[in-house]
Amino acid sequence: MTKTPRPFRFVSLGLAAIAFSLITLIALNSDAIDPFQAFAAPEAGIIPSPQTDDDRPEATNGKIAFQRGSNGSSFIHLLTPGVSGTQELRRGYHPAFSPDGTKIAFVDNTSGATNGQIMLMNADGTNPRPLAQPREGFSPTWSPDGRLAFVRGDFVSTGNTGSGGIYVINMAEGNEGANEVLIPGTLRASKPSWGANNRIVYQCRVQTGTFFQNPLGICVTGDIPATHTLITSNPPAISLILGGANFNDRDPAWSFDGTQIAFLSTRNFPQLNGSEIYVMDAQGGNVRRVTNASNFKSAPAWAPDGTRIVFARENGQPSFINELRMVNADGSNGTNPEVLTNLGLADSFPSWGVG
Known about the structure:
By secondary structure, the protein is mainly β. Helices cover 6% and strands 38% of the residues. The chain has 2 helices and 24 strands. A hairpin with a 2-residue loop joins β13 (200-208) and β14. The longest helix has 14 residues, at 15-28.
């Protein structure tokens, strides 16, 4: 135990008294902890962490925003894994948490002036607001540096399962929606996900003659340039990393660290009577199945720590009645994923935010 030094009485200001006092101080503190010990340099090659695993709060795995109901009448809800009940935030669909978990981008469906537009709100549902420069679209996804990408429908289809071009906008406060630009080559894209590696993975349609149709594949861009002018003048390369006849791979989603992609596929269902959640590496290799239950699934989203994946699945009623389930990313509970919602209220499009 650290001893507290006793107060000193200097009987004189002479040199001898000062020396005596210093000797007394050292003696009284001979077993004290060095006050600089807490700031000692770490061992070579070791970088100290501000928090240990045991210190990190439960909020590390944050909250899940999701859509309840079909697009025209849906509300956005919020749930915390491990806590019962959900919180209704407001009307809208396709919620997407910002990288820091403080904001949610979504699509408005209030039938007012902002209907069909990308909007913002705080993570708790407060302060819903349009972008400074209004933009219409769906399936928003945030970049690591805070830009936003989304799909705007083309002549093929529109809506929650539709396709279109992937557009990028700046989201600087007070100028949200500025500098909109289309990523060249993404004219038949769906369900984009912008990863920590600055690449967008998305569901791409295979061209047959002059039409873009199923079977679907999964495409990924190269690095997205930092400005709208560079996206146009030096567009990212686009690669098909997964796909093939009868595979019907779709709904890709990056893990938070940008090393893995979750997706769904009918590859184990030749009659297209079910689908499963799979995981693969960033380059499209090492595909492994993580769910094993015969029903349709959609819209996987990763936990911030990469250990779990939330997804929507049909509950045995008509396929549009979805509920949310959560599976371990290693597939260890793949036959019996954890139930998050079970009211049969068409819960879908989850987005898992930090904080």
